[in-house]
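Figure 2 data, in text form.
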Amino acid sequence: MCLGVPGKVIEVDRENQIATVEFWGVRKQVRLEVCDSPVDPGDYILNHVGFAIRRIPPEDAAETLALYDELLRVADEQDLMTADVRGEIDAAPNATILPNGAVDESE
């Protein structure tokens, strides 16, 4: 299953068409070539396999992120979508999923 995940744009490198985007406290580089409109820091994008596919309104991002937070909080370890999201977060340095589904980046 492939999912689009909302993230908040932190920085934009227009020359190289790359944005630094934050997902649950984890920052990743995302390509911008296929995004439907230009993005700026503070915007939200829908990320799919490392590409921003569209800019999304903050309220849409908040709704989707709330669903993911609920999933991380209650789903069991056998759920493939939960395992995928947890794997991405766990792969980031200093990021840990707390029992309530929040992400802790402290050491």
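Caption note: Helices lie at 58-74, 80-91.
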